[in-house]
Automatic annotation (TrEMBL):
Protein name: HTH tetR-type domain-containing protein
Coiled-coil annotated residue ranges, if any: none
Cited Pfam families: TetR_N
Organism field: Amycolatopsis ultiminotia
Keywords linked to the UniProt accession: DNA-binding, Transcription, Transcription regulation
Record domain HTH tetR-type: where: 24-84
């Protein structure tokens, strides 16, 4: 995952980037910089000055795109979350014709690999986000709801393929997503800033949690399910 645009260099002369391209490049560098600074220093200790120094932009350029540090961090989190959800969705799509268990495992592996391959993202958006205020916590909940929707869709597909599968309730799917986040966050925090977290060992327990929720004896009185 990367928040940086494809073209970062600002050539001179005839090949110079347009004003909009320069602004996009600066914005991408700022998003990347706030993510890396928060991962290295912690959210409370990070300042706008730290961010613009790392991004190599002026204070004017920063405030042309963002109102403050929290705004920049929130937008970085939103973009990184979009990339992660796309990664998971695309990986599952690659296994479209496979049994539901294989698709489930592929999604879990993509989720963990996304953070494993981007340590700064992992620390910033799984650990430090909790110190960034209500705005970020609310935004995290909305992102989680998007993941829950995708997971519920997979459960519905699995139920159509396998009579042993039932569609879990919304709260049950949220519980699965929160459990996965909790296990990942614990491992990321243990690895510490600047270190690549080893998350591969979490694939089996996270997949097992999902399978246990998907396949269990249906209760006589069961909460309303998602998608059906």
């Amino acid at each position: 995952m990367t928040l940086m645009p494809d073209r970062l260099d600002l050539p001179r002369g005839r090949a110079a980037l347009s004003g909009s391209e320069v602004a996009a490049s600066q914005r991408g560098r700022i998003l990347q910089a706030v993510t890396e600074e928060v991962a290295a220093r912690g959210y409370p200790a990070t300042t706008v000055q730290h961010v613009i120094r790392r991004a190599r932009v002026s204070r004017t350029a920063f405030y042309a795109s963002f109102t403050d540090k929290q705004d920049a961090f929130a937008r970085a989190h939103l973009e990184a979350s979009r990339q992660l959800l796309d990664l998971i969705r695309n990986r599952v799509a690659e296994h479209a014709g496979a049994p539901w268990r294989e698709r489930l495992r592929a999604g879990v592996e993509a989720y963990l690999e996304g953070f494993e391959n981007a340590p700064s993202y992992a620390i910033s958006f799984m650990v430090e986000l909790r110190a960034a205020g209500t705005l970020l916590l609310d935004q995290r909940d909305r992102v989680l709801e998007r993941h829950v929707h995708n997971l519920a869709a997979l459960a519905t597909q699995a139920a159509n393929e396998d009579p042993a599968v039932h569609c879990p309730s919304e709260l049950e799917v949220i519980a699965l997503a929160e459990a996965a986040d909790g296990l990942a966050t614990r491992a990321i925090r243990a690895a510490g800033p600047g270190n690549r977290p080893a998350l591969g060992a979490l694939v089996v327990p996270i997949v097992a949690l999902h399978e246990a929720m998907f396949i269990r004896e249906a209760q006589k009185e069961h909460p309303a399910t998602l998608g059906g």
